Amino acid sequence: MPSISSLRRLSAPAPRARIGSEAGALWQLAWPILIGQLANVGMSVVEVAMAGHASANDLAGVALGVSIWNMVIITLMGVMMAVNPMVAHLVGAREFSQVPHVVRQALWQALGVGLVAVLLANLAGSVFDHLALQAQVRDLAKDFVVITSLALPAFAAYRVLYGYSVSLNQTKPVMVIALGALLLNVVVNWLLVFGKLGLPRLGGLGCAWATLVCVWFNLLALLWWMRRASAYRSTWPFARFEWPHWPQVRSLLHLGLPIGITYFAETSAFSLIALLIARFGSTEMAAHQIALNFSSLVFMLPLSVGLALLTRVGQSLGAGEAHAARFRAWVGVAMALGFAVLSATGMAVFSTQIAAAYTSDEAVAGTAAQLLFLAALFQLSDATQVATSCAIRGYKVTRAPMLIQLTAFWVFSLPLGYALGLAPKWLPWAPAEPMAARGFWIALVVGLTVAALGLSALLRFVARQHLPPDQPIALPATS
After folding, report:
1. What's the CA gap between 336 and 346, in Å, rounded?
2. Which of 24, 75, 82, 123 is an S-S bond match for 256, by CB 3.0 to 4.6 Å?
3. Cα–Cα distance, 363 to 287 (Å, whole number)
4. CB 297 within 8 A of CB 38
5. For residues 332 and 391, is the Cβ–Cβ distance under 8 A?
6. Considering the chain, what percentage of its residues have pLDDT values greater than 70?
7. What secondary structure does DSSP assign to 21-72, as a single string?
């Protein structure tokens, strides 16, 4: 039995060198993910820019189609994320022989979920028939959804291999392939949107074909890389064929569906906010889109840290190192918070300059600068909620975070935004005048703060629950 003095030494705060070493190891995983995420965002920017140069109708049709596409693929990303903690746990436990089985079953799951997503995307696209749209815009939006839906099974399979690769600490391949896909997206859009090199001029529909080509490129390129790289040989999932094993598929769905529901709730909430703001006119809507676009770019940094953190925590738990998992979780949260302090400061100080970089319209720029200042306020809570939720998923806990985030967005943000933004007369506590976009962004600050506090408390509880009862606290290795 250890002495009291040894227990005190073991339970002492981690030295700065340990924290710095863990932060460095986490960043080694995170930075390639960050570049890959930014490349993916860049593809959407390219498509909007290309369609905008084709015609106003092309831009409108592509924007509507992309709204359905983004909602579906973000939900798919969440469902397929179940493979990350499962593989990370097996890697930490050095049970490499079980990894191929999990990946193969996750690919079967991807096929099934991807086909369901094809049906749901096309059903969602039928909503365009009930909107007051020009015939050309409506037809383009519907065709965009039909073409891009053919990429959904491939996208689901790619996210399985993405999670498998990241959980093996192999993040650079996904970065390189994402950059290659961005370059390919630019070329294919240029060729098809404007009809270059003798190809037909498809306008906005060329963006849909470019998306389809790039998704399949991602999948095939990652398969090619894995087949050639030695890092995947001991866990290569295609060494043999196996039929679906339903208990394993159910286990993946049990973990992944709550994440998918969470992602869907978040994206649908932002979409609903955009629709509610639209009634206040183009100035408010444009300002909202500017603030949302810049906030989304900044969000890629804590998100990338969170995805890397999921791997670090999962591997620690698989190795039976619960103290290391807790240590790594909180170092990751602190690291995300540190980045958030920098981004919040920059957004608050340079909100006017950022808005001016997006538009020359003084009214739009002024409103956008106000929204960017509010966005700066929720950087800390946004970074905290994404880092803590990813760490909790590393513990294979997904339902409780789902409930917390659903509460934050649908119980706090949306009702409060409705009250402040629209100021309905039947609400006695509504402001005298509608606050429009500012009211919804104030509500987002409140909702994200609720999520951050709830998820931080949940991470503390889950981490303590996994600690062995009579084991002294030892500082973890950071390899």
Report:
1. 15
2. 82
3. 9
4. yes
5. yes
6. 94
7. HHHHHHHHHHHHHHHHHHHHHHHHHHHHHHHHHH-HHHHHHHHHHHHHHHHH
Q: Between 304 and 41, where is the model more confident?
A: 304
Tokens representing 248 are 């394993």
Lookup: tokens for 16: 């700065």
**Half-sphere exposure of 70 toward its Cβ, with a 13 Å CA cutoff?**
18
Handedness of CA 264, 266, 270, 272 (dihedral sign): positive
Cα dist from 251 to 86, 105, 245, 309, 396, whole Å: 10, 10, 10, 22, 11
Residue 249 contacts residue 104 (beta carbons within 8 Å): no
Q: Are 106 and 160 in contact (CB under 8 A)?
A: yes
The yes-or-no verdict on residue 454 having pLDDT over 90 is: yes
* DSSP per-residue codes, 430-450: S-SS--THHHHHHHHHHHHHH
Say which residue the tokens 């806990």 belong to. Answer: 397
- pTM of the entire predicted model: 0.85
- For the segment 317-331, what is each residue's pLDDT rounded down to a tens digit? 999 999 999 999 999
pLDDT band at residue 364 under the 50/70/90 scheme = confident
State the sign of the Cα–Cα–Cα–Cα dihedral 312, 313, 317, 323: positive
What does 292-354 look like in DSSP terms, one character per residue?
HHHHHHHHHHHHHHHHHHHHHHHHHHHTT-HHHHHHHHHHHHHHHHHHHHHHHHHHHHSHHHH
Q: Which tokens in the block code for residue 187?
A: 């070329």
- Report CA Rg, the chain: 23
Crossing angle (nearest 10°) for helices 379-394 and 437-465: 30
Q: What is the sign of the dihedral through the CA atoms of 257, 182, 150 and 190?
A: positive
